[in-house]
Design a protein that fits this description.
With about 240 residues, the chain is mainly α. It contains eleven helices and three strands, in the order H-H-H-H-H-H-E-E-E-H-H-H-H-H. The relative contact order is 0.16.
Length: about 240
Amino acid sequence: MPTKSRKELYREALLDVSIDRGTVYDVTQQELDALSAFTTKNSGPFISQSQATQEVVDHNRLSRKPSPAELAAIQRLREALEVKDHLWSPDIVIKAFHDLDIIFFNGRLRNNVQFQWKTPEAFTSHVRPDDFALGATNRTGRVGQMSIKLNAHNLLFRNVIQKPRMQVWSTALHEMCHAYEGVRAQTGMKPGHQKDFDLKIEAVHERAQKLFGLWAIVPAEELARCGLYKTWGQNHGV
C-alpha cells in the first residue's frame, strides 16, 4: 500500500479525534475528550521546580522496575509504533498521550493537559516569526493546567521534516516535559530551556531511546539534514 501524502496527513490531523476512525489504539472516547476540555481542577499538592525535575529523573532511571500498568502501556505503544505507513494517522500521538504520560511522567499529567493538533494560526501569538515551531506549551489561566499544541503544518505538511513520524513523538515528549513544570511546580512553567528542563528531557530521551528508539532530543545531524539547525537549533539552545 502507498504511503499517505503529506496533504492527507495534515487533513487527518485536524479532524476530531475519535476511537471510531484513524489509528486503532486501546483508549476510551472519554479519555480522548478529556484532552480537549478540562473536567476537573488541579488541586495539587504542588512542589518546587527542583523536586518536579527530580521526580521525572527518578521515574526514568533505567534501573527502575516498571509497574504492571506501565509495562502494559509500554507494550501498547510498541505495537502502535509498528503500524504500517498506510495505516498510520497523526491521531495516534493523541490517542497514546495517556500511555506516554504513564511511561515517562508517572501519570501525573492526566486531566491537567490539553493535547491537540493545531493549524499555524494557533501559534502566531506566542511564537516568534523566525522560529520554526513544531509545538508549543502554554498556560491556560487555570492553576496547574497546561495546553500543548502540535503544529500540523510544520510537522506534517511542509516538506522539511524528513522523518515526520519520528518527529511527532519527539515533539510530544519535548512539550510534555514543559507541561510537567506547569502541572507540578509551585512556580509554574519556566520560560525557555533552563537547567531543570534539560535534566528532565535528557532523562526522558535516554529512556525513550532504550524502550522505543524514539527521540526526545532531536540529534543535531537530523536538524542539519532538514535544514533546521540554524533556525530551530539556535533558538532552542542546541
